[in-house]
Amino acid sequence: MGDYLTGLCADLGANSELLDLLQVDVEPLLLKTERAIPIALIVNEHVTNAMKYAYPEGTSGPIVLSLKKVAGGMLELSVADEGVGFSGETTSQGLGTRLVKTMAAQIGGRVETLPAERGYRAAVVFPGDIGA
Prior knowledge:
This protein has helices spanning 2-12, 33-53, 95-106, and strands spanning 22-26, 63-70, 74-81, 110-114, 120-127. It is α+β, with helices and mostly antiparallel strands. It has one domain: Heat Shock Protein 90 (2-Layer Sandwich), CATH 3.30.565.10. β4 and β5 form a beta hairpin. The N and C termini lie close together (10 Å). Keywords: ATP-binding, Kinase, Nucleotide-binding, Phosphoprotein, Transferase. This is histidine kinase.
């Protein structure tokens, strides 16, 4: 998953000045293809949104994608930034939000908007039935 998500982020940031600030922190994991594809769609949505909205023109900072094991045999996929944060309601029902919720449900997960010291952090927590 590390190589897969690193390559995906490189593609997403190819035309952005934020590419050098995009960090991928993924534990060594092998996931089945039917789990990797929804994860990639979730990453695409969250990283793209962070690159578009986290840092207004003239500002920059890190965007961190992580995939880690957490308690209870679960995995947490998160995207965090230290940008301007999210001032709107987190109950948005836009296409991207619906896509993330649908993909999270497909892998048995739930979407969480988590407190961040600065900026914004969104995560999907899902069962970690690891295996190729």
